[in-house]
Amino acid sequence: MENFDSFTTQELPKAGDRVLVGMSGGVDSTTTAFLLKEKGCHVIGVTMSIWDGSVVEIKNTTGRTRIREACYGPGEEENIEECKKFCSEHGIEYHVVDVSKIYKEKVLEYYKKEYRSGRTPNPCIICNRNIKFGAMLDAVSKLGIDFDYFCTGHYAKIVRPTAGIFGTNERPCMVSSATDASKDQTYFLYRIPSQVLEKVRFPLAEMKKSEVFDLARRAGIEAADREESQDFVGEEYRDVLFADRPSIPGDIIDLDGHVLGKHRGIEYYTIGQRKGLGVALSYPVYVHSIDAKNNLVVLAKNEELDSSALIAHDFVWPADVEPEREIEALVKVRLAARPVKCKVLPYTPSDDDYEYKGRPWYIKFEEPQRAVAKGQSAVLYKDGVIVGGGIIAKAVK
Prior knowledge:
The protein is of the alpha+beta class. The protein contains seven helices and 20 strands. It has helices at residues 27-39, 76-89, 100-116, 123-142, 194-197, 209-218, 238-241; strands spanning 7-9, 18-22, 42-49, 58-60, 63-65, 93-98, 149-151, 156-161, 174-177, 200-201, 250-254, 259-263, 286-291, 296-300, 306-316, 327-332, 340-346, 361-370, 377-382, 385-396. A hairpin with a 4-residue loop joins strand 11 (250-254) and strand 12. Helix 1 packs across helix 6 and helix 3 packs antiparallel against helix 4 (123-142).
């Protein structure tokens, strides 16, 4: 891709810098705060309170219990107490900011609306853009807290191109993959604006997860012995989140329109899903597509889930600099997907009735991709660095 010859990694905070650390109570963010404190930084811990009490402990076969850790749910109070205890023991200033109202509006309502529209949302991406690197920082600013850097426990790094991007003089901060590829979290961060990234740093960028655990245990950090937190909420909370209105059952069909069974509501299904379909056939079937207009879930064989391309919209580009012509890159169509080569071309709708946000782009894969889902993100990379990304509007079968 033009003008992306090389990148320089941006320096981490040094002794004496005022550093705001986003803390969740988990081992990654707690170790981040510990490392910066040991380095001689003036560390300020902050936790965003997002839980409004609407998701409570739920029952399983053994009684009422919290089934697992989640970033949204009743475990938040315990997490805050653990952060408060750690900061007190290490002489770290600590704050809790309530962003539950905007979280409900921007993340929870988005999550429900997308699933009910037959799309597969990624709430963590929306949360990072609007809450963790948005509303939380706004709340800290309103408290009059100044800082030189904002650090989190994400496995990623911040880099800057050595030359201008897309034929311009712009050299914005950009997100690059971390050393530990198995924990790489860049996909979740692609929508964070370049101007916000100027102050963002990820101190765990060069560390492996195993090294973080080892360091945390040697330092006596209690978070090293707690269960790993999960992103957003688990499937077990789905009924609670969708309890605000009745689900509408409908038909499950195959590609030829034959009725195979009944679904409980399209919000309970995702592209590529195999388990929990309630359909017994002589061969494996998966969710091929979801027809929200006609309230249908369409199943197909695995090989029929491949796509040759996709159309994405609502794009974000570094420093808001949009390329003027076709570019080449690697693309990930979901967090766990392997990046594949692609060509990215401006797309001009003709009789297309989809309501695109901003200029849509046509992404042609070098090799077919399985289970491309509307609502997920297509994130573009060059040498491990995110160079753009957008929301998938359509898969081209």
